[in-house]
Amino acid sequence: MNDSPEQRASGPRGWWQRLRQGLARSSASIGGAISDLVNKRRLDAATLEELEDVLIRADLGVAAAGRIVAAIKAGRYEQTVDADEVKAILAGEIEKVLAPVAQPLAIADAKPFVILVVGVNGSGKTTTIGKLAARFHADGRSVMLAAGDTFRAAAIDQLKIWGERTGAPVVAREPGADAAGLAFEALSAARARGTDVLIVDTAGRLQNKAALMGELEKMVRVMKKLDPAAPHAVLLVLDATVGQNALSQVEEFRRTAGVTGLVMTKLDGTARGGILVAIAERFGVPVHFIGVGESVDDLQPFAARDFARAIAGLDS
User: What's the predicted TM-score (pTM) here?
Assistant: First the structure.
């Protein structure tokens, strides 16, 4: 996927700076603790145990934390080490976990290419849809949005605003309307117009999981009547600030919605950005985009090395 004019203007360095800034709380939590623990100290058993605790508290997961500490220990036990050396090992180990899941969202030849966006309320679902629409529009693709979160009037209104910003028509009904019927209507309209990409919002209320998941399954079922391959992608939007709860969300939505890829938002609002490492290690689901702010340019394709070095507090 090509970068938008704004991204080309700011360049990779501009994104790196935003990523570093966005992950500042996570890197301060991890990198700061590493500096306090190991700088010019012997790497003894107590120090290694404290290091492992730091990584677990940062939500990297027990397995990843143990493996990273083992890599740090190898050939350095009872030796004096400095923080930058440890951070470099940390970044390298995190990159090993993340590299297999750092995959771009490939838009296939299907017309329209249907993206179903799922996630709990408050995860940044609707905003993410708007940012994706802006990216696709900048790439020269025509986009249509479907306000499938018919449960919340605010979500419908928010999607309409994004439609105006990005020049994307929005298929919407009144609050409380049948979401599956709306999805069918949107796909019919997108096919008639020859639209390149159709992005479908969905409800995110988990208080009644059975009803929500039943609604998602019905939306998929009715779209398949028009296109047996639809939806071509099911993106789960995760809020990084929820930490360990993100793991259960991935598990739930993978089982019920057939998630094909992840978008992690609000990394700038948490010191627990390491949760992405735990998710990658446990599920191996592709991570397509990450978000570190409110502007359109703050949602970017996920790059394992950049993320690993930023969270470790290293330069690019």
Answer: 0.91
Residue bearing tokens 């004096």: 80
Residue 62 is encoded by which pair of tokens?
Answer: 């027990």
Pairing between strand 299-301 and 287-291?
Answer: antiparallel
Measure the CA–CA gap between 163 and 146, rounded to whole angstroms: 10
Report residue 263 as tokens: 């978008």
Pick from 140, 174, 187, 151: which is nearest to 3 by CA?
140
CB within 8 Å of 222: residues ≥ 6 apart: 180, 181, 183, 184
Rg (CA), the chain: 21
Residues in the chain, total: 316
**With contact defined as beta carbons under 8 Å apart, do 139 and 1 qualify?**
yes
For position 206, what pLDDT does the model report? 62
Q: Residue 171: which region, alpha, beta or left (left: phi > 0; alpha: psi -120 to 50)?
A: beta
Angle at the Cα of 94 from the Cα atoms of 43 and 271, rounded to 5 degrees: 85
| Sites in the chain below the pLDDT cut of 70 | 1-13, 205-208
